[in-house]
Structure formats: structure tokens, C-alpha cells
Amino acid sequence: MIATFSQLFVFVFLILQISPQISLAETAELSVLSCRICHAQSGTSSEIPSLALKSKKEIFFSFKTFLAIKAESTIMHRYTTGYSAVEREDLADYISKFGLVAK
Amino acid sequence: MKTFNRRQALALSATAATGLLLASPTLGANQPKIVIIGGGFGGISAATVLKTVQPDFDITIVTETDSFSTCPFSNLVIAGLRSLKSITFSYKNIAAQGMSIKVGKVTAIDAVKRVLSLADGSNLSFDRCIASPGIEMQFDQIPGYTEALQNLMPHAWKAGAQTLQLRDQLSSMRQGGTFIIYAPNTPYRCPVAPYERASLVAHYFTRHNPTAKILIVDEKDSFAKQALFTQAWELLYPGMITHFPFSETGGIIEVDAKNLEIMTPFENFKGDVVNFIPPQKAPKFLLQSGLGGNGLWCKIDEATFESKHAPNIHILGDAALAGDMPKSGFSASVQGGICAHAVASLMNGEPPKTAVLLNTCYSLVAPDYGISVAGAYRINDEGRLRSIKNTGGASSIDASDEVRKAEASYAYDWYNSLTHVMFG
Q1: pTM score, whole prediction
Q2: Of A18, A23, A46, B76, which residue has the fewest beta carbons closer than 10 angstroms?
Q3: What integer pLDDT is reported at residue B360 of this predicted model?
Q4: Predicted pLDDT of residue B391
Q5: Which of B6, B354, B392 sits opposite A16 (nearest CB)?
């Protein structure tokens, strides 16, 4: 059965009456769109450290290091505070599995 | 996860409902048609990400030129350190990914009929449009500065012919001459680029015209990374660069382009070469199509980049008011990717997602001396794209020479990585 626009709108409106707040998910798969800008070609010819083949543990540990030893990094310690611990873990997990491709 | 109040949720749901309706093309034989305006950082990033997540979408990119010269690193061209060719990229690899490239100038968008008009008389219909067309100069704002006279005092704020023109003017400037940079008030493209330009031209002058002077006539009192620039200028180019803030000049009142002179209430500045960076705005076709409201820039839903003035049209990059994010190539590229995902979600009848968005503006004060300012942004409870507190900021004023050198290397690597992501 195909709903008309008005039926759909009424449906959405009714849902909102029941649950007045909806969520906009913040996801690791979209956050990598920022990471890839510097890290997409990192590696042998680049001084920006490569994330290729890094495990979740290694990436998550790097975040912890950026938070603890600020002078060791020129950029990442300024970014890392922007993510919650859960977001850092999600990001590390995603990058270790899928690299920097936002699927 | 972010929560929204009732009003925001209603607005978002209306958008999602529209998306559900528009999802119908995916169910039929016709592929959803997405037209992307702009072949720069925002447009190409949106196109390539959208093609990755929705390979079945019919994507057309409309671009005014058949190649893209980047504003980032164009200051290296002006300073004789790189060729224009080295910062120019073709769309060959984009076309090879199955997207159409249409070289042409957009003159209008009809949001109701979902049709673009082009200067060659052709039209392009779309289900959704992503516009990332960059900026246009305001030639009618300052007495004496007109479009016809712009080549006398080139802005070189769109990489290309004027980049080379300014380079050539500087290389033929008389010994001991004066180079003036006029920097407009915000908002404008690449807020720190005038100061990087002064730095790299100073690097050129120290080798080829050591008694030359550089004056920055600024419409602002301060600028990002000012302490870092000032520190570097004193170290690398002592006495060569002088910054005149608004509070010292009272701001520009008139230009005499033929005599290369800038007039302010307190002082007139006459140069041998003048780089006049005028105030800017979103391109005329966006504003004349009603997408700027009563302003000069385009208001958007800062989560999906959908226009506040018309459904199905997403605007990003320099032309948009994207919350706290600066108008930079890095910002536009990140926004392009996020917008592509939002368009895919809306076309598929799914709620859009969001993320932490980053931006770094690197500046080369010399080829081996880099500084940066970084920011991180996320959608807040009011649906605004705001800076995350206690995050980002500029390079340390106390950083060692090694860190300055490392930041210069990172700047080159950032550029190579970003252009690789976009153009392959």
C-alpha cells in the first residue's frame, strides 16, 4: 500500500505527539570524512602517520596519548577532546575495520 | 546522539517525509538525478562520496571550468615556489567513476520545477541539487573599485589567471617598492590566507627585492593566528611587513585603481603593486534564485545543508552560512561528504545522520615554517553547527623550530592527501 504525502505527514506528526523528541545519530562512519582529509594518503611519502592496518586498540591508545601528552602532536591533541570516550572507541573500531571510507 | 526539541523535530520530520516521497524514483526504473554545482572542494567531495554510497544515482557535476585550480597553495604560486599547473586538477578521474561533467555557468535554479538554467540556454532537471559554487566578488561596494578595473589591482582570490598576474606584477616590481594587500572584513573565503600571502611574498622579497615593504591594510582589528604570524614575521622578515588594523585607519573609503591607491579617513596608502581582496558574497545565481533570503550568503539546515529557503536544494562550502565553520577548502570538503550522506538518506526515506566535523587551516609563513588553527564542530541542541568547547585552537606560541617545520610538512601532506581524495 502506498501512503500519500498527507498520510505520511499525519503519521510523522502523530509519532511526535507520542515521542516529542527524535534523535540525530552521530556516527563514526561519517566522522571519518574528516579524518581521511589528512590521513587518506598517509604512509611512506607522508609525515602524517598512517592509519592503515592499525588495530582498534592501537588507534584508541593513540587517542589516549594525544589527551595525555599534548606537546607530542601538532594537531591531534587539539581535536581529541572533541570526542567523548565512547565516540573515540567507536571511531577506533570503525577505522580498524573499514579504514577511512564512509560507507 | 543529539536530541531536538519539538519544533526542530517537526522541521526535520517534514524534511524526512519529503525524502520519503522523493524516494519513489529508487523504486522505479529511473535513477535519482542529483545535480552538483561546483567542481571544487565541496562539489567534488559531495560527488565522490555520494557515488560511493549510492552507485546507482545519476550524478551530474556542473562546473564553470574544465579543470580546478586550488586556492590553497596558490600563495606558493604567487611567491614563485610552485607552478599553477601543480595546483590544477582535471576531472578525468571523476568522469571515469561514472559521473557526468557539464562545463557551463548556472544562471538560475527553479526550486519548484527542480530545474537549473545554464548560460548556454540548456536546462538540467534534478531530484536534489547540491550547490557548492564558491564565492563572487562584490564589485559595487567600494567607490572606485569596479569589475572592469579589477586587473589593475588583482584579487587573485580565485586561483587562475589573476594568480599568475599578481605573481608577475610582484616579480617586476621596482627594488624597494611597496606591495599592499587589502584584506576585507569577515566573512570571506580563507580568513587567514591574506596573512599567509604576505608571509610568502616576504619570503620572495628577501631573496629578490630585500628593501621592499609589505603593508596589510585590514578592515578588521585582528585575525586568526595573529600572534603566531607576528612572531614569525619578526623572526623571518624583520621590518618588512606592517599590519594596519581598522582602528588605525578607520577603514577604506575609496580606491583609485589607476594610481594604485587606497584611501582611508586617516591615511592614504599608495603601492607599486596592490592586491585588493574585495568583500565577497554567494554567487549571484543563488541570490537571484531566492536562496539567500535578504542576505548575501545562504542560510541552511546545518545538519543536512538543505536550504532554509527551498526544499531539495543543499548548499555548502563558501556560499553557505555553515554555523561556526570557516570558509575553507577543508571545511567544504568535509561538508560535501556529510551532505552527500544526508542526500542519500533523504532520498532513501531514512533520517539523516551527523558527525563531528573537523577543519584545519594550515598557513605557510615560509616554505619550512608552518602554523595552524584547528576546529571541531557538531550539531547542538538548537540544530546549529557549533564549535566544540575546549577543542581546537592555534599552534602553540612556544613551539620549537622542529614543530614549525613539522607543521609545514603536515601542510604539504594535507594538501596532497586532500587532492588525492578528491581527484585520485
Answers
A1: 0.89
A2: A18
A3: 96
A4: 95
A5: B6
ipTM of the complex: 0.88
Out of B334, B341, B379, name the one closest to residue A37 (CB).
Answer: B334
Q: CB count, 10 Å around CB of A98?
A: 13
Strand boundaries in B221-367, DSSP class E: 241-244, 254-256, 261-263, 268-270, 273-276, 280-281, 298-299, 313-315, 320-321, 357-366
- Tens digit of pLDDT for each residue in B292-330? 999 999 999 999 999 999 999 999 999 999 999 999 999
Please report the pLDDT score of residue A70 as a whole number: 64
| Mean pLDDT of the region B1-15 | 37
Residues B387-401 have pLDDT tens digits of 999 999 999 999 999
Average pLDDT, chain B: 93
Q: Residue A3 — pLDDT band, cuts 50, 70, 90?
A: very low
Which 26-65 residues of chain B touch chain A by CB within 8 A? 49, 52-53
Q: Determine how many CB atoms are found less than 10 A away from the CB of residue B172.
A: 10
- CA distances B259 to B30, B213, B256, Å, are 59, 18, 6
Backbone φ and ψ of B245, nearest 5°:
-75, 165
Q: Are B14 and A9 an interchain contact pair (Cβ–Cβ within 8 Å)?
A: yes
Nearest to B418 by CA among B334, B354, B343, B326: B334
The partner residues of A53 in beta bridges, in order of sequence, read none
For B39-99, list the strands marked E by DSSP. 58-63, 67-69, 88-90
C-alpha cell belonging to residue B78:
604567487
With residue B393 as reference, give the H or E element that holds it: strand B393-394
Q: Read off the pLDDT of residues B24-51 as tens digits, 9 standing for 90 and up.
A: 334 345 799 999 999 999 999 999 999 9
Can the peptide bond before residue B133 be classed as cis, meaning omega within 30 degrees of 0? no
Determine how β-strand B88-90 pairs with β-strand B67-69: antiparallel
Rounded Cα gap, residues B267 and B261, in angstroms: 11
* B413–A42 CB contact, under 8 Å: yes
Asked if A26 and B334 come within 8 Å (Cβ–Cβ), the reply is: no
Place of cell 533520517: B351
Contact between residue B318 and residue B134 where contact means Cβ atoms under 8 Å apart: yes
